[in-house]
Write a structure and sequence with these properties.
alpha+beta; about 20% strand; globular; about 190 residues
C-alpha cells in the first residue's frame, strides 16, 4: 500500500502509518461490501421482491430479517467483478450536497467525500441470467470519537445507469416515507396495543 501511495504522489505519509491505514482500508471495504449485500438481498429477486423488502422501511426490513418473514432468494450470492477508485470525481449526489452546503451551510454543510469508488458487481437474476450492476460509494469522514478514533461514513448505492437502478434507489429510500405516509406505522402500533 505504501508503494501504491508513493506512485500516486502521496509522499508525505510516514511508512510506519501504513499498517493502521491498511486496517482502516479493510474496515471500509468490508462496510461497503455489507451495504452492497443489503442492496442485493433486496433487489436480486426483481423489483417486486424489492418492493416487498422495502415497503416497511429500514426498520421493517430489519424486523423481517430477524423474525424470519423475509427469506432471501436462493441462488448465487453477488460477486465483485472489479472496482475503480475515482477520488477526483464527485458523484452527482455528492456534488449536489456540496452545492447545497454552500447555499445552506447550517443544514447541508460539511466536507465533501474524501474518496469515491465504483464497484462492479455480478447479480444473478431469478431466471439465472447474470447482469453487471455498478455501485457508487462516497467515503466521508466525520468528527472523531471522544477517544480520538476516526469516524467514517459510507454512502453506497446503485449507480443510476438505467431505470431499474433508479427504481431500486427510490424504493429503498422511499420505503420509510411510504410506510409513515400511508399510516401503516400508526396502524401497526395500534395493533400492537390491542
Amino acid at each position: 500500500m505504501y508503494n501504491a501511495m508513493l506512485r500516486k504522489g502521496y509522499d508525505d505519509t510516514p511508512e510506519d502509518a501504513v499498517e493502521s491505514m491498511v486496517a482502516v482500508h479493510n474496515f471500509l471495504n468490508e462496510g461497503a461490501w455489507n451495504e452492497i449485500e443489503g442492496w442485493e438481498a433486496r433487489f436480486s429477486g426483481g423489483l417486486l421482491e424489492g418492493w416487498r423488502a422495502c415497503r416497511r422501511g429500514e426498520e421493517g426490513w430489519e424486523e423481517m430479517v430477524l423474525n424470519g418473514t423475509w427469506r432471501p432468494r436462493e441462488g448465487d450470492a453477488p460477486r465483485l467483478l472489479r472496482f475503480m477508485g475515482r477520488p477526483g470525481d464527485m458523484t452527482p449526489k455528492a456534488r449536489m450536497l456540496d452545492w447545497l452546503g454552500r447555499l445552506y451551510p447550517a443544514k447541508f454543510g460539511g466536507e465533501p467525500p474524501f474518496d469515491r469508488h465504483d464497484w462492479f458487481v455480478q447479480r444473478t437474476t431469478p431466471s439465472g441470467q447474470t447482469v453487471e450492476i455498478r455501485y457508487v460509494i462516497d467515503y466521508y469522514s466525520g468528527p472523531p470519537e471522544p477517544t480520538g478514533e476516526p469516524v467514517f461514513y459510507l454512502d453506497v448505492r446503485p449507480a443510476v445507469d438505467g431505470p431499474t437502478a433508479a427504481c431500486e434507489r427510490m424504493m429503498r429510500w422511499g420505503g420509510d416515507i411510504w410506510h409513515r405516509a400511508s399510516g401503516a406505522k400508526a396502524r401497526e402500533q395500534t395493533e400492537d396495543v390491542a
